[in-house]
Amino acid sequence: PEPLLHRNTVDGRVDAAADAEVVELELLLADLAHVERRLEKTTCGGLERDTLETVAEGLQRGAPARTLGLSDAAAAAIKSMGLLTLKPVLYAFNVDEVDFTFGREEALTRARDVLASLQYCDPVRDQCVLVSAKLEAEISSRTAREQREYLDSLGMEP
């Protein structure tokens, strides 16, 4: 069956891996622009400059900074820049309310399969969660008592 984990693409296909790659590319480009601006400054030197040049080369190849094997000292030298691709990633999969409540394990398995297909996903540092925007909207429109009753009917805790 067709997984319900992803949003439809412009052409109607469903492809969470492609969505993740687009977001990763946007983060790469943002970090690359940030690194290049810092390298233009005369106050950037020593280990910071060396590290940023390494990071820039990696970003230009499409490799997130977190995958470049930076030493602790190198990572500390550029920590203040807050590079997005240096941080671990939390992937949120929006699923329907049935998958969220009753098919949770299968949906998590499908989500992990998507993550495993991503070139730069680190299964140790990066994580995934399931969310159901439709279920959240349904719950938030109810009173506190109705919320508890609704969650109880789904076998979930408030």
Number of helices: 7
Mean pLDDT: 89
Low-confidence stretches: 1-6
Question: What is the CA-atom radius of gyration, in angstroms?
Answer: 20 Å
Largest sheet composition: 2 strands, parallel
Estimated structural class: mainly alpha
Q: How many beta-strand segments?
A: 2
- In angstroms, what separates the terminal alpha carbons? 31 Å
- Helix coverage percent: 40-55%
Order of strands, widest sheet: 1-2
* Shape verdict: elongated
Give the DSSP E fraction (strand runs of 2 or more residues): 5-15%
Give the H and E element order: HHHEHHEHH
Provide a short characterization of the protein structure.
With 158 residues, the protein is mostly helical.
What does this molecule look like?
There is one protein chain. The protein is mainly alpha-helical and 158 residues long. 53% of the residues lie in helices and 6% in strands. It is built from seven helices and two strands, in the order αααβααβαα. It has helices spanning 16-40, 46-60, 72-78, 97-101, 104-117, 133-140, 144-153; strands at residues 90-94, 127-131. The protein has a two-stranded parallel ribbon. α2 crosses α3 (72-78). It is elongated, with a radius of gyration of 20 Å. The two termini are 31 Å apart. The model is unreliable at 1-6 (pLDDT under 50).
